[in-house]
Amino acid sequence: MDPMDAIQVHDQYAADYDRLSIEYGFVLPDALFGLCIEYLRPGQRLLDIGIGTGLSSVPFARAGMAVYGLDGSVEMLKECQEKNIAVDLKPWDIRTAPWPFADRFFEAVIECGTLQFLPELEVAFNEVARLVQAPGIFAFTFKTPGPEQPSGANSGKYSAEIIDGVPVYAHNPKYIAELLRDCGFERRKALKVLLTRGLGLGDDVCTVVVAQKLTQ
Predict the structure, then answer these.
(1) What is the pLDDT of residues 112-170, one digit of tens each?
(2) CB 114 within 8 A of CB 127
């Protein structure tokens, strides 16, 4: 299936996204905010890649951050716009570089629940490295391969499965660590979080990471 279908699916349930997130106990935004808030100050510029309805950005906006957002789903951006939490929202496929911002424009970049729809992450990490000024942070989540993954799946960059007709990727933590190092970031914090797929469907393991830019 074409990965672009992930954007189409998000367009379809944009109006119900926040409600479904509550029903499924989607706690990644809370974990993300809690881990990185000590590195942030009111008035700083923050970019949320895959901002969606703005669910992950709400606590940052309430903390006084100037929120900017990118997302491939126009319908999700419409829902986000209604919350009036962002300085600027742009429809953008984050697999396409360069992203529409100047070098070192942000003190922070966040991502929550988006990387799992991308098999290769080099473009995203390189763009984040370009946009974040040292000693700013990149706080993000990624789906972690579980013990049920086929033998050898963890030896590469990612393993993949189809969920509700959409490709979803679990990334090798070693691959993530190498990307951070190559892009000039150092990991400061990490937390594993269990997310339920639904009644009787088991849990996914996601990792929340806060990394700090070392050099410009």
Answers:
(1) 999 999 999 999 999 999 999 999 999 999 999 876 554 344 458 999 988 778 899 99
(2) no
Determine the residue type at 180.
L
Q: CATH number of 5-213: 3.50.50.60, 3.40.50.150, 3.40.50.300, 3.40.50.2300?
A: 3.40.50.150
Buried b (16+ CB within 10 A) or exposed e, 48-79: bbbbbbbbbbbbbbeeebbbbbbbbbebbbeb
Where helices occur in 24-167 by DSSP H, the ranges are 28-36, 58-62, 74-83, 122-131
Q: How far apart are CA 23 and CA 212, in angstroms?
A: 33
Q: SS3 for 215?
A: coil
* CA distance readout (Å), 71 to 4, 27, 68, 93, 112: 12, 20, 10, 7, 12
Q: Is 110 exposed, middle or buried (0-12, 13-18, 19+ CB in 10 A)?
A: buried
* Measured distance CA(157)–CA(61) in Å, rounded: 33
Residue 37: how many CB atoms within 10 A of its CB? 15
In the predicted model, residues of the chain with pLDDT beneath 70 are 1-5, 13, 147-155, 197-202
DSSP sequence for 119-130: S--HHHHHHHHH
Listing from the earlier edge strand, what are the strands of the sheet with 86-91?
86-91, 66-71, 45-49, 106-111, 132-144, 203-213, 185-196
* Pairing label, strands 106-111, 45-49: parallel
pTM value surpassing 0.70: yes
